[in-house]
Amino acid sequence: MPDARKPLISGNWKMHHNHFEAIQTVQKLSYALDAEDALAVDVSVHPPFTDLRSVQTVIESDKMDIALGAQNCHWEDKGAFTGEVAPPMLAKLNVKYVIVGHSERRELFGETDDDVNRKARAVFAAEMTPILCCGETLDEREASTTEAKVEGQVRAGLAKLSKDQVGAMVVAYEPIWAIGTGRTASAEDAQAVCGFIRGVVSSVAGADAAASVRIQYGGSVKPNNAAELMAQPDIDGALVGGASLDADDFSKIVRYRLA
Ligand code: PGA
Questions:
Q1: Which atom of ligand 1 approaches the CA of 133 most closely?
Q2: Which residue, by CA, sits nearest to atom 1 of ligand 1?
Q3: Where are the domains of the chain?
Q4: Does domain 3-258 have CATH number 3.40.50.300?
């Protein structure tokens, strides 16, 4: 599956970097990467909403091989939803990827599987690509309910999407106990769940969609563990939080193949 599953390395900046810091970070990142990197790997950065227009302008004026991403959106196109941002507003800024259902949105802001599915459908309706997050807590892992949790999130997240949409999207497996903790899943454990997710995608949307959907691993991805994770057959990318804030670290992750 060479081109269909070109690796995607995404930097989720969460609530970090104002628009000045965002511009500096994306400029440093672009200096650190070259044309071969762009051939080998897709890269996206997901700054806070207030930075998007500034980062878009820099990416486009300097013709950077970096895609713009968002961290969240609402599912409606417009309306009386104070504080929310609509998918068409993001599309207008040439946002390409939108993270939906990050565990912080689910756990801290009460997003349900149904909300996440509406968001995924709205992202596609606005001609962008959702990155659908799933993952278990430490308690769930210790109770051996990882697969049940992840399967439920993936099935609900993919509801009412076409097979073609599923094949074109990104699923991020992010064990909650590994996010921001410095505790990465072992490459074997990450592979086991990512392989399981591909099987769930196959049963929901068929073998072709499963063969082309890109599955990222996220949770304390760092320059020193990216290559091992990326070598796994069902891991097609990384969703990177903390280490994406620093352009040097993030560029090393993007260039994992040179490690
Ligand atoms: P981390 O975050 O890399 O800081 O663990 C990953 C994420 O939440 O996407």
A1: 9
A2: 241
A3: 3-258
A4: no
